[in-house]
Design brief:
The structure is a homotetramer.
Chain A (H helix, E strand, L loop, with lengths): L3 E9 L5 E10 L2 E10 L7 H14 L7 E7 L4 H5 L1 E2 L2 E2 L18 H4 L3 H8 L4 H17 L1 H6 L6 H13 L4 E6 L4 E2 L1 E6 L3 H4 L6 E5 L7 H18 L9 E7 L7 H17 L19 E4 L3 E5 L4 E4 L7 E2 L4 E7 L8 E6 L4 E6 L4 E2 L4 E7 L2 H4 L7
Parallel strand pairs in A: 3-4, 3-7, 7-11, 9-10, 10-12
Antiparallel strand pairs in A: 1-2, 2-4, 5-6, 8-18, 9-11, 13-20, 14-16, 14-19, 15-18, 16-17, 18-20
Keywords (chains A, B, C, D): Hydrolase, Metal-binding, Zinc
Protein name (chains A, B, C, D): Succinylglutamate desuccinylase/aspartoacylase family protein
Cofactor (chains A, B, C, D): Zn(2+)
Chain lengths: ~400, ~400, ~400, ~400
């Protein structure tokens, strides 16, 4: 089947040139939920582009009768971030104009909602579907009021125009999937909101960070946070509901790369997730292993990041994927001197046990530069996994 | 008199070199409050360096008997930000490593305080001085617990080390003055916290932005916010106190410049403020005009910023300091085209009356780039001022 | 009259977006020479955009019978450089990918010519027009061979694709005008090649830098150098000819600005130059003052640039346009210390007499940063000029 | 034995802070030649720092009697380049202030020499040692005249101060070794000047680029070029001499890394080279394989670099070290669209046979971005090598 392809201008540059985002919309024969999938919000995080490319090719091969609902795909969704270069590297994590992290700019309804608990109270006698529709309507109405400022002669900063474009496409979706990867070098995992652990399995990844803390500025958070707030409010009023709304960030390996294994996992995970949600009718899916698939969940505040305690060069670092005991030597810092002394080697021990899931690409470190990240936990927790690098 | 000069290493770089901050401490003969004055936290905002240089020279010319309390001065307080260059320009507004705005990194006790109202309750029978001492002790104790993370093998990001150094010097001060200027081109004004309007006069500046909103991440906010919270809590409990604690950000003109008029205003204002606080015993100070000096206060949420609504080049912009009627043409955007059309001129009208207090240095604008800022208000409010540019 | 408008893609970005240049071609009724005018090759140098915009509007108001030959105009000619930002500043002087200065990338036929003197010898019996045609043909043939590499699977660096696009438009022009301005803050002047001094007058600017040295990498040089080489070679062979080929760089004031006075001078100068060349038939032009206009020529190697001899902040700098005696204090460096000493003031004297024609925008200087530029010469040489800033 | 450690300030920053280089000088008991070894001239190229660190430790373990002549080592030789960051990456290939490539700034005596052939003529009756001494003296005298400009009130750009510092240390050395690596990801190889092929063997690397073209701006070139010119001139006059002067650039693997294998090769190669030159008396060295070691020399103009012919994402790239036939698919470009079309895959074939010796780190490419480099040549030339990645 062929998608509808929509091209949307997002910015006119000083030179008069314009940059665009392009949406591929696959509309199924059968009415149903909406899935929204984007990639490359951070300039260096390109693996998701290959995932979306393969999904577009895959969906083109289907018949419209095999799709329930609609699937929207937006690869290379952030032209300003993607095309930014500093020397040969993709420096598009934050906007070079104002330093804003491209994934901390989004609009969170909950921050502007006057009284969610009052709304919840007003809905207790309605069906989940009715409540979902009513709430969605309120969110969208409030959201589209942003246009007033955007269209005023006084304008808004680019990040506010840009977020409006992306959220216009995604805010009414049931399932949002934002494909990221490490800025540096990382394992494949996903971010999962509290209460959606069961759904997370369908992505067939080994690890998930459980979002026990979030502020609503990231793309996944902005979409999900108001719904979790409403669910909580309804539960308090004795009406526990889980809405058909989910939001995911997939982390697919290493930055500035499209690692084939990470890409393959991304494609298979999203196909399986959509099949599990009933949106794709394809042979063999959802895969039989879905229900038995075991995900290791790590609480977000159980991540430990290491930063250089002195300036220097990193050597003998334990590889990505290593399971650690407390006290293991994580890496050495070869620290040079400018006061007439010799260079020295500093051994850096692990402050607790865990698994190395992300490491820096750059082995040259100013004091305070990022070195690596650890899922905290006893080795047994991570022991069953085999890494083949 | 001679100050004590202390040199503090703040970072070891990858090359092994170290960068420092240097504190000039003038200790008066008479015990009294502590004033802390710094400059150049943002790399482009250099006017305060000349102010502090002149204050150092001025204080050297005094006798220790003329100073009550102690005055600490830290010019060029952010080496990483100051020395950063992009082409010929000072690009040090945010850290080139992680995009963090150098003035949105600070530690705010209130965010970690478990229960300020409980503390307030426990102090209602004490004198203001006792409460101030007790609260200060609690804040400092909590603050110095940050050392545990800083000294751990896992380290902390540079901005967290750096803020610890600056706040170690300033957190026990009664009066904190942070000298900024516009990143672009601006008038001279200051930021003033609610309830400190009377003190603001002593700086003898024409405008003040009244901080009716703040989140505690800026340097002035981080120092002041916990005290305002305690004052509010005590007031609720029927014990209104204004502690001898104040925090100020001075905005001294245009970025990448040390405009002599702005510098002179900064020096005179700080001398007068310190004299008013009884810290300087110098002839003629506080200046007689201090009490009658009229400051125009503008609420922080009554600032309107303009951003380019299209890409292009700015022409015929009204000058800095212009008082506006609604609908006045603020500037034109000469917008070029890349689709076979002619360039066009877009007139941009003022959406409300006010005073232009800040304008961009760069007349080339991508859509969403910053153009200028306005204090909203009727022309009469600003009518008496004369600008001589 | 209406121009032909041509839109040319110059690059596809990683995101799939494309950037363009757009040419406005005014074709006169009468055959004649070709003039090529561009602006904003360096990102910060925007004044020429307003010049070209006004020229487009002016030419639209003419009748095709008033134009002899054709006039091509390319405003905002370097999208990658123009849209580049570092913080609020236009950092587009060099390509952020490889550090190449956008105006040191051009193709110079002379560097590839096997034997110009042999060619000259072969042409001594032909008319200047014939020689000009023959040489042009050779240059263009060689130039278009660059396509082989550009079209190969191995590709070429972006700067080589880009220069090919710009030079494709301009290499057959008789008169090339490249509108620049200072990266920093500067007077209005132009660059003039040896032997074209008489033509320079028509621009009605007060100063010209006489290019007694050039290497062919700049846009004006790349166009002109092969012709000067041929002229020299023919002269050696007893056939002095001045071809109807000229190439100019106009420097129109301050960077990141479109100063109205600089823009007006640019517009008037180009109109007058084209009228003088017989391309424009407009009342009153060439202006009567053209022949008597006196230009102060300064040899390129008689420019003195000053760089900071220590790190610090600049104060009390003499203003742009000042005529100097040797030993005059040009500026002071307020140099801070990090070894326990006081800040100090360094006076920087002029090492010879002259005129300040360019000054840095940024008063914060690392050791070795640029401060200002001087046309060397006795004060009498510059004495007659009045500056009104 | 202990080295003499000298710390040399190279720049005072705007903040007043200073950066340094530090030289470790091992002076042998026996008079002899001088070797100069530096690393990290380009900010991302850090492998040489580990090499020099290990050499310092190794030399400390020797007795002064084991060293003939003197060995100077300068790790982390370019603080401004090394500490530069753009996001998490080391962007120090060119100076962020003026775009100058840190390894294209050096002073080449030949460019200023008035007449080397005249000098050669004047020396034909002297011994090689005498000529070498006389020439060295002339070079150094001319070089130190640069101080006049450096010390003048007008100053010089930072790169000119900096090159003066580095060349002051190295210009009188017999053997200069500059440790680089790829900005991206590369094999281990070295640059070798014409006529020094025999000496190159001692580094025990598999590949060498033979410098049949050079302009004297790189560090190795600036040291070597005047000597090659003199040798050529003397040869013309019938006095073929090879002076005891050599200059090398080692390329040690991948940027932003200190790959242990590359480091080990660097250490062993330099030890062996110094032993071969008679400067180190250590058991087993020079290694027996030195004379039989076979180096594959590739002419500098037989390197082919590939650049993206469209914007897009790179996939299925052949790995570093692959030996190619003409027409082999080197990589695919996944090119996205913003005009309503589908993404497409572009296959990029090899335009000639050869060996992939360098590949980009970043798989996201604007049109014209660098992809990979090839040593051109028939597969048989490279066939014997085994790569184990």
């Amino acid at each position: 089947m062929l998608p509808i392809i929509e091209t949307i201008p997002i910015v006119q540059l000083a030179s008069g040139d314009r940059l665009f985002i392009q949406v591929y919309k696959f509309l199924g024969d059968n009415p149903g939920p909406k899935a929204y999938i984007q990639s490359n919000l951070h300039g260096a995080e390109i693996a998701g582009n290959a995932v979306i490319h393969q999904l577009i090719e895959f969906l083109q091969g289907l018949d419209a009768s095999q799709i329930t609902g609609e699937i929207w795909l937006v690869p290379v969704c952030n032209p300003l971030g993607i095309n930014q270069r500093s020397q040969h590297f993709s420096s598009g994590r934050y906007h070079s104009y104002d330093g804003k992290d491209w994934n901390r700019i989004f609009w969170d309804y909950e921050k502007e909602a006057t009284d969610i608990s009052q709304f919840a109270e007003s809905q207790v006698n309605l069906s989940p579907e009715e409540i979902q529709d009513n709430y969605r309507e309120i969110i969208l109405k409030k959201f589209h009021q942003l246009q007033t400022d955007i269209n005023a002669a006084s304008g808004v900063p680019f990040v506010e125009q840009y977020r409006y474009q992306l959220q216009s496409l995604s805010l009414d979706a049931n399932y949002v999937i934002d494909c990221h990867s490490s800025t540096n070098q990382g394992l494949d995992y996903l971010y999962c909101f509290n209460s959606r652990e069961e759904s997370a399995k369908a992505f067939l990844l080994d690890y998930a960070i459980l979002m026990n803390e979030y502020d609503g500025d990231a793309f996944d958070e902005a979409g999900m946070k108001p719904w979790l707030a409403l669910e909580k409010s309804l539960a308090k009023q004795g009406k526990p509901i889980q809405f058909d709304v989910e939001s995911w960030t997939l982390e697919l390996g290493t930055g500035m790369q499209m690692n084939p294994q990470s890409v393959a996992k991304g494609v298979r995970g999203i196909q399986n997730y959509l099949a599990k949600k009933g949106m794709l009718d394809i042979p063999g899916f959802p895969l039989p292993e879905t229900t038995s698939h075991s995900v290791i969940f790590i609480l977000k505040n159980r991540i430990r990041k290491y930063y250089a305690t002195a300036g220097g060069m990193i050597q003998n670092r334990l590889p990505l994927g290593t399971v650690l005991q407390k006290g293991d030597c994580l890496y050495q810092l070869l620290s040079f001197d400018k006061t007439g002394q010799f260079p020295k080697i500093i051994d850096v021990p692990a402050v607790e046990p865990g698994l190395i899931f992300d490491v820096c690409t750059n082995y040259s470190a100013n004091q305070g530069d990022y070195i690596l990240s650890i899922f905290q936990g006893e080795p047994e927790k991570f022991g069953k996994i085999n890494f083949d690098f």
